[in-house]
Amino acid sequence: MHKTLALLTLVGLSACSHEHINGHDHHSHSSDHTHHMESAKDITNIIFTSSARNCADYANEYSSQVKDINKDTDYSGYLKVSLEGGKCTFSTNAIPNHDFNDGSDTFVHNVSEQDITYTIPQAPTINSEVTKLSLGTDNAVFLNGVKLDLLAAGCFGVGNGFIGCGNTEQPFRYDPMSPLNDFGTDSHNAHTQPDGAYHYHGNPLAMFSDDNSSPSPVIGFAADGFPIYGSYFDDNGTIRKAKSNYVLKDNGGPRKDISFAGKTYAPGGNYNGQFIDDYVYDVSSGGDLDECNGMFVDGHYGYYVTDNYPWVLKCFKGTPDSSFNKAPPEL
After folding, report:
1. Which residue from 144, 163, 244, 326 has the fewest beta carbons nearer than 10 Å?
2. pLDDT tops 60 at residue 60
3. Count of beta carbons in the 10 Å neighbourhood of residue 34
4. Rounded average pLDDT over 15-23
């Protein structure tokens, strides 16, 4: 049974101060937040309801008690959202607010607590040009403290195909959300990185209700500060899911070879969604969202979780904060 919570606005909280490199702290098995747990708001299995667009409205401390199902191990999640100088700071141990690792195959790497600090502006702005997703930048942080990391580190014809594809421009990058690829994710489209960091590759299948009873709430914030909503919005009185404008190239016809850096890559087959290169943005396809998978509603911009590619966002309309920077995979 899910609980429902309308997150309240709390003011006067100071930003956490963590030493960090390139805006990030990554320390496994951290216990620094343990003494905060008793006073934090419990968000275990919460379905969020707030549509507040300003990250300041979520200033508070949050905790959760969850389980690694396959390992039969208990974990405590912790997130603090604080304010300073027109920015919101998310300090998190990256443990979700729901049970995890419940797939038929257990995670290759055990989940471990992290010590991560993200910062976003309270009033993000739209740039004249979009910023592409990068292997060197985490994409977003959700309101349960877990990050979104959409790009896989594996490409066809590079190494073993699972890791080592560090050039963001490399063609035929596998889509972790495709059923044709086995990325060992759990029921929340998430798994772990080698350092034990739990992260989502798409719809977290948590935090918002999958029904059209009301528009979806804010469930997180992208690295540029714009909110991420669930799937549903109010379309002139009709509550329905937002639709992406990305479609399979050539209506799913034969996949063409691509030449890159002096080499030709030819996975063959048809455009079937196995690779992110299988998709193209087509504004005439009848969808709702722009090239970054967002839109303006009531004059305010936000990204939306969708049932098909690019799943949450494809690019940034604003400038991603440097606190989301991470070390990219080795080339």
Report:
1. 163
2. yes
3. 11
4. 28
What ranges do the domains of the chain cover? 3-150+188-236+297-324
Mean pLDDT of 163-189: 94
- In angstroms, rounded to a whole number, what is the distance separating the alpha carbons of residues 200 and 169? 22
Identify residue 190 by its one-letter amino acid code: A
Q: In the predicted model, what is the mean pLDDT of the chain?
A: 89
Whole-number Cα distances in Å, 212 to 2, 131, 218: 17, 32, 15
Q: Is 17 helix (H, G, I), strand (E, B) or coil?
A: coil
What pLDDT shows up at residue 37? 67
**β-bridge mates for residue 192, sequence order:** 198
Which helix (H) or strand (E) element contains residue 200? strand 198-200
Peptide bond just before 227 cis, omega within 30 deg: no
- Alpha-carbon gap, residue 68 to 21, rounded angstroms: 29
User: pTM to 2 decimals?
Assistant: 0.88
Place of tokens 């141990």: 93
Please compute the mean of the pLDDT values over residues 284-297 and round it to a whole number.
97
Cβ neighbors of 248 (< 8 A, separation 6 or more) are 271, 272, 273, 278, 279, 280
Q: Distance between terminal CA atoms of the chain? A: 45
Q: Greatest CA separation found in the chain?
A: 58
Output the pLDDT for position 133. 97
Sequence length of the chain is: 331
Alpha-carbon dihedral 168, 172, 174, 178, rounded to 10 degrees: 130
The pLDDT value recorded for residue 9 is 34
Q: Which residue has the tokens 């300041």?
A: 56
So what's the pLDDT on residue 22?
A: 32
